[in-house]
Amino acid sequence: MSDPAVRVDTTSQVPPYEQIRAQLAALIRTGRLVEGERLPTVRQLAVDLGLAPGTVARAYRELEAAQLIRTRRGAGTRVAPLPDAPHGHDVHQLSTLARDFTAAARALGAGTEDILNAVGNALDSESEPAPASQHTGSGSANPTEASATIPAVGSRAR
User: Residue 78: its pLDDT value, please?
Assistant: First the structure.
C-alpha cells in the first residue's frame, strides 16, 4: 500500500490551506493516517506542494485546533489520538461549504443534477485509491495541481 497523498488544485475556489486541512483531516479520521504518524514539516510540505509556508502552517494550526494533530518542538508534527466517541461535525461549517460549492458550481453553469452528480462522484472517489503515478512529489501532469506524499518523514512515534 502506498502512502496517502495530499493534492492542491490552484484553480479551485477552495483556498489551498483548506484543501490541505480537509484532506489531512479525512486521512486521519478514516484511519489512513494513524496515531503517532509523523507529518512532514511545514516547510517541507510547502516545498512539495509549491506553496508558501504560511499556507501550510494555517492548515496545521486548524488541524491542531481540531485536536487531530500535535506539534512538539523536537518531536515534529504527529497525528493525535482520536477521541473514543465518534466525531461530530460542525453543521454550520458544513452548510457554509455546501453553499460555497453550490455557488461556484452554478457560476460554472451547472444545474442541480450536475451538482449532485459531482458530489456523488467526489464521495465515490474518496474510497478509491488514486493511481500510483499520482502519489509522487509535486510533479503532477496538471500544472494547476500539486501533490505530496504523506507522511514524508518518519513513521510512528516510538
Answer: 96
